[in-house]
Amino acid sequence: MHMSLTIEQWTMLGTWAAPSVAAMGFLLIRNQLRGERESLETQTSWQVYEVGSTILQIFIANPECRPYFYDDKPIPDEEPLRSKVLAIVELVCDLMENVILNRHALDAETYKVWVLYMQGLFNRSPTMRAFLAFENEGYRYSRQLLDLLQAGVNEAVGSVAWLAEQRLLQQRVVRKRGFMVFKAPKRAVQPSGA
User: Where do transmembrane segments lie in this chain (predicted)?
Assistant: First the structure.
């Protein structure tokens, strides 16, 4: 038994098949774009972390410079330390600018972590604040970066009080989610020879 379709049946079949094929095509394109977006976010995150790692390596190689970024130490007057600290602060500010300008390519959680880091660093570094003053080098950085850092000043991000508040909030979140936080019991010290 041989079954053949009429022209009307072929037309009707084509009318129903075309939207189905188009819908499948759109789904495939959407999935491909989603994959490319995730790939871009991952690649950008790794590039940002790689630069961050480079900065950490600079602090490891130059530990005398770290207090000017993390410990509220003002710009040194003596050379060559002053020039070294200012060169590092410029590198750090360029990284921060890069994060801000590429925020669309970072996932929201990664971006939020970097924002808090940048704001805390800015708040703890008189050197960075002086460097980013408009009359010094601040004029060449984006308004988005400068406004973001100022918002961190307004919220005292990175201060002792802010950190204590964040710890309390984190504990509440952990409790709210039903997790229990256990501390390991202190082990009794055994006398030698026991």
Answer: 12-29
